[in-house]
Amino acid sequence: MEITVFVDDVNDNVPVFGSDSYRDTIPENVPVGLEFLRVTATDADVGSNAWVSYTIVDGNYNSDFAIDLESGVLSVAKSLDRERRHTYELTIRAQDSGPGSKFSMCALVLDIEDVNDNNPVFPDVYRPVVIENNLPEITVEQVAADDADEGVNGALTYSLQGNTYNSLFTIERTSGVIKVKGRLDHEERKEYTLTVVAEDAGQFSLIILAPFVVAIDKQYCS
Ligand SMILES: [Ca+2]
Ligand SMILES: [Ca+2]
Ligand SMILES: [Ca+2]
Ligand SMILES: [Ca+2]
């Protein structure tokens, strides 16, 4: 006599991720909806005891990322901005659908790569005043702009654009120190208008132009 024994599967296996931890890098300007990585976990049981669903359970700041419940494919859910957040440490859970559902976790570190998407800005307005009959080569002002980007995308150099009054005014490229070469005379001219440029060193460099008015004051004899 032949006996056939059917062994019912018991949900005694947890889903196991291909790796305990994943790491990936995405540029900050990727489009919303971009699918960038798939995590998978296998479950040695059968049927619903092995049906695995995926969720992000921690680290999903601002809900910037989404995971497909069935496939484990991760996508960008919202616009990223490295200047807002440059790294995420997500915790992803794989959970089976059997009775006494079993799950496991893996970690995913996402680094957001900088793109040159910020112009330099001058936080201050400069209103320098020079007393006439100055010594030559005196410093009029030191200007400084800010740039929120990283590395070369935020590394600034300075220049003067347009009229420098026959190079009467100069600016040091890296320090932003503006000097006047010759002696100024209030009766001859009461102010000079310059255009100061700050430029970052990104591949597609961004600039800001700022008007810069130097007033010449009268020297009173004491
Ligand atoms: Ca299982
Ligand atoms: Ca940005
Ligand atoms: Ca940036
Ligand atoms: Ca920049």
Automatic annotation (TrEMBL):
One of its GO terms (molecular function) is calcium ion binding. InterPro entries: Cadherin-like_dom, Cadherin-like_sf, Cadherin_CS. One of its GO terms (cellular component) is plasma membrane. It comes from the Eukaryota. It is found in: Membrane. Residues 18-122, 122-216 form the Cadherin domain. Keywords: Calcium, Membrane, Repeat, Signal, Transmembrane, Transmembrane helix. PANTHER family: FAT ATYPICAL CADHERIN-RELATED (PTHR24026), PROTOCADHERIN FAT 4 (PTHR24026:SF126). This is Putative protocadherin Fat 4. It comes from Stichopus japonicus. The lineage of its organism: Eukaryota, Metazoa, Echinodermata, Eleutherozoa, Echinozoa.
